[in-house]
Amino acid sequence: xxxxxxxxxxxxxxxxxxxxxxxxxGPGATAMPGSxxxxxxxxxxxxxxxxxxxxxxxxxxxxxxxxxxxxxxRVEIDDDLLRGIRVxxxxxxEIYGEIEKDFMRDPEIDVKRIAVIEP
Length: 119
What we know:
By secondary structure, the protein is of the alpha+beta class. The chain has a single domain (29-118), classed as CATH 2.40.50.200. 24% of the residues lie in helices and 34% in strands. It has helices at residues 3-20, 36-41, 79-82, and strands at 48-58, 63-67, 72-76, 92-100, 108-118. The chain has a five-stranded mixed β-barrel with strand order 1-2-3-5-4. Strand 1 (48-58) and strand 2 form a beta hairpin. The protein is globular. The N and C termini lie far apart (42 Å). The relative contact order is 0.18.
């Protein structure tokens, strides 16, 4: 098997993954909320968030109560994101996701990525 046959798909996937994290920060860009208090103050549907805190408790099959010390919000974490990760109520985690704001419902975060900072 030729090296280029293995190298090209790897290079392509790295380019795609790298560009997925790109974000426009110039004029007209809105700042990403950095705390639960900011999210709750102005919950804009589909707005990206990056938060650091703890999962306080499991609310349902894929929903948890999250707190960063400034407030509490429900987060939705699919099982596949937690596969192979151990998280307790004392673990410090970082979550990246989107605000879900539906009419007449409290906002929540749809988590896309999770990382354990302190087990």
